[in-house]
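User: What would this chain look like folded?
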Amino acid sequence: MALLDPSNRSLNVPEFPARNGPQRLAAAATKQPRGRQKVMLEPGHSPLDWARLKSSGKDLRGVSQLGKYTLEDLKQHNTMEDAWTAIQGKVYNMTPYMKFHPGGVKDLMRVAGRDGTKLFMLTHSWVNAEFMLDACFVGFLVQSS
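Assistant: Here's the prediction, encoded as structure tokens.
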């Protein structure tokens, strides 16, 4: 399908993602678990609602300043009322996002209180976690001393 300008002339716009680009290759290489179930989101919890909440200015972090956290620190945040995870070295308070996650709360709880990088990359390699959870960013994962 070609893009057209207002005069119905074809526009030369590159395809995105490119046919052999890293986004398509990563998505194709990702093995999706068999039998995954879609979860019915509550009204007001669509991706658009999440984007609206993120840009509302409301504090979704729950901390006054960014910090450095160890795996031991993460383990303390493993409940539905207080769920943190680390993805690629960044720590997120995912509590506000729980009801917005298309896979449901149960899937997110699998990584609550731990480093969720491996599971995230196995199931969501094409998702930009930094953008999706930027309003929930609380700090960096560091080694225990």
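The chain is about 25% helix and 15% strand. If you want, I can go into more detail on any region.
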